[in-house]
Each structure stands twice: as C-alpha cells, then as structure tokens.
Design a protein that fits this description.
The protein is mostly helical. The chain has one domain (6-203): NAD(P)-binding Rossmann-like Domain (Rossmann fold). It has helices at residues 6-9, 28-40, 56-59, 62-68, 84-97, 115-126, 137-147, 150-154, 158-170, 180-185, 192-197, 200-203, and strands spanning 46-49, 70-74, 104-107, 131-135. This is NmrA-like domain-containing protein.
Length: 206
C-alpha cells in the first residue's frame, strides 16, 4: 500500500465536516468550502468519507498483532472505517447516475468498530486469535511516530494531523455509519473482516 502525506493533510471531504463544533482544525477548509458552495447555489453532491480502512495498515501494527496475538493500541471510540474502493465506487455511481444534487452523503463502512473490534476482525480474517492490549496516549503516539513513512513525518502538518485523527476517533467523531455505499452502488460496503481477508497473505507474512 502506498501512503501519501495527503492522506493526512488533504483527504476527500470527511464525515461531520459540516459540524460547527467539530474540534478538528483540519476540517475547517471542508466546512468553509461546503458553505461557499451552498451560498453560491452551485449544483453539487458532497460525499463525506469516513476514515479509510487502509489507514489501519499504517497506524496499527496489524501483521505483528496477527503474529503475536496482541494488538497494542490506545482505547478509542467506534469508527465506521470504509475502503478506498468503496469510496471510489460511490463517487462513480453519483457521477454516472445523477439525481443526488444538493445532497450531503456520508460514505462509511457497514459497521463502526473500536480497537477490540479491529482485533476481532483480524482474528476472523486470519484464523488466529488476536486481542487488544491497551496503551497510553503517549505510548500510542510514540509508536505511530516511529511507524509513519519519512515522507509523512516530513510534511509540515501531517504528523499532528495523524495524532488529531486518533484523538478525534477516541472522542467519537467518526462513529458514523450509513448504507449510502449500498444505496448508490447496489453492493454492501466492505466489512473490516472482508478488507483484512483480502490482505490475509500480507497479514500472515506469507
């Protein structure tokens, strides 16, 4: 998986971007953009993606967790992780089908999970028992800092953005799920178990 600094600094529009009390400064530009589009009467459909499931490969030691049976991570709130492929399919369906002008659609996975749920999904996908081991916030941020690629660490705001995403998740800001992917594409959104299963060989170190 290739990870860009932009995945932290400039993702597509995100869930709850329009919430005026959302504490993430990163979302200010999205909220302001939505406000400008609304004020100008631009015919637009806004797709607000939840956190990409693929980001877990970067922010958590998944393969290590499968090998050891332990997923060390700070406790967090539930997150409706969604795959990039599902986001792309939803966007393509909107472009091809039309009929969604003026709508704000949250694009999410089928269920919101916490860290214990991530560990359970890993176990189901690989056939190996994995359980969650709690870390402090300081321990988790130090581990994340060490794991991020150099190009992400070198970006001016990427590291703090990564920490901000983690803190916002713990506060419940990404605890959002909808059936928008299925309504738009006719196919249910990919579950975290199925996402991990598609990468089973990598997770097992095969």
């Amino acid at each position: 998986m290739r990870t860009r600094a932009a995945d932290f600094d400039d993702p597509d529009s995100m869930v709850r971007a329009g919430d005026p009390v959302n504490p993430m400064a990163l979302l200010d530009e999205y909220r302001e953009t939505e406000q400008v589009l609304a004020a100008e009467g631009v015919p637009v459909t806004v797709l607000r993606n939840n956190i990409y499931a693929e980001m877990l490969d970067l922010t958590m030691p998944l393969a290590q967790a499968v090998a050891t049976g332990v997923l060390p991570a700070v406790d967090q709130g539930h997150v409706g992780y969604v795959t990039r492929d599902d986001c792309a399919a939803a966007a393509a369906a909107v472009l091809a089908g039309g009929g969604h002008q003026g709508q704000y659609l949250d694009i999410t996975g089928p269920a919101a999970v916490d860290v214990a749920g991530i560990a359970e999904a890993l176990g189901q996908a690989t056939g190996r028992a994995v359980h969650h081991q709690s870390r402090t916030e300081a321990e988790a941020e130090a581990a994340l800092r060490a794991r991020l690629p150099e190009q992400v660490r070198a970006a001016p705001t990427a590291l703090e953005s990564a920490f901000a995403f983690s803190r916002a998740g713990r506060a419940g800001w990404f605890d959002v799920t909808t059936h928008a992917v299925e309504r738009l594409t006719g196919t249910p959104a990919t579950s975290l178990v199925d996402h991990f299963a598609s990468r089973r060989d990598v997770l097992l170190g095969a």
